[in-house]
Amino acid sequence: MAILDILTIPDERLKQASEPVTLFDAGLRSFIADLEQTRQAGPAAVGIAAPQAGRSQRIVIVDVSGRPKTANHGYMVLVNPEIIRWEGFELGREGCLSVPDYTGNVIRAERIELSAQDPDGQFHEYAMEGFEARAVQHEVDHLDGLLFLDRLVSRRTDLFRRKIYQKGIQRKEKGGT
Amino acid sequence: MLTLVGEDRPGIVAAVTDCLYREGWSLGEASMIRLGGNFTIMMMVTSAAGAQALERVLRPLADAMDLRLHVDAIGGGLHRHLVPNIQVRVTGADRAGIVAKVTGALAQAGFNILELESDVAGVEDNPVYIMNIQGYAEQTVEALQAAVDGLNEPDIDVSVSAVDTLIG
Question: Which of A102, A156, A165 is opposite residue B117, by nearest beta carbon?
């Protein structure tokens, strides 16, 4: 096993779309082991995508099980993942191993369903929400050459405000004014 | 730290940054926003030349565009980000003292404000104050919520939540 070098911006390879995995062999499994070791060596990353390690293939790892009070599927290796359903939207703060020393706000779907293969090529389907769904969307973006920087929204985005404003209205109605 | 404030119009940022670029100044972190019809710039800039030289460089432009100019030599630098872990949202009737009370309670609980933006919404007869704060605290969300609940202000709604920064 080995810790791989992480590509950082402005490396052009981070902008490339990755190729599907077709060969489910020992080489793939060995790379996945290295990728997981690389994720764990970094600063508390809950996910990592193969292109971040310079391998332009559709492979991601997500594991949010270390976070308290977070619904999760444990350690997931997603090969050729495809998000097939999106629902709701939510603003959250993200950072990235490939974008050192910067975090920013991004809107993601609150709930998703996806299909993916495991390292042996078997197909699985997942339904997930919240932080785990956010992590998967972040990693799948890497496979399409997208970084969270491509989805940044203003701190002043009206999503926060709209929620607050609606709450205010409800209160007023309850108070009968 | 360079501060520029003046009546908003198109072209302020372009003119200021072009002038700095031509005179060999590098730009760092900046906050620029329109507040009540004014455009405000706070920007870290650096060069070997020093604060007095910066004022000389920008004075003609500031006068021409009617911008108030202020320069402070500071000890800050890049790559000193603190990642916020707590968010506080405040809404309520717009009256004196909201900010002081809420931020006072938060400060006493050890909360360090990293960003604060506030606005007055609603209609003129019935203004609503909205404030959004992101900051850092060692304390739990529950402890901070208890601190602001202790203010006991019935017409102000203060909610404390965690900011879960995802690194991936």
Answer: A156
Whether residue A61 is contained in a domain is answered as yes
Question: Which residue numbers of A are catalytic?
Answer: 139
Respond yes or no on whether ipTM tops 0.85: no
* B98-131 pLDDT, tens digit each: 899 999 999 999 999 999 999 888 888 888 999 9
Which tens digit of pLDDT belongs to each residue from B32-67? 999 999 999 999 999 999 889 999 999 999 999 999
- Whether B167 has its CB under 8 Å from any CB of chain A: the answer is yes
We report the CATH number of the domain holding residue A118 as 3.90.45.10
Closest-CA residue of A relative to B129 is A165
In a domain, A16, yes or no: yes
CATH code, residues B86-162:
3.30.70.260
Q: How far is CA A39 from CA A35, A43, A65, B7, B31, in A?
A: 6, 8, 14, 49, 33
B154 in contact with A, Cβ within 8 Å = no
Which residue bears the tokens 């968010």?
Answer: B87
CB contact under 8 A, A94 and B79: no
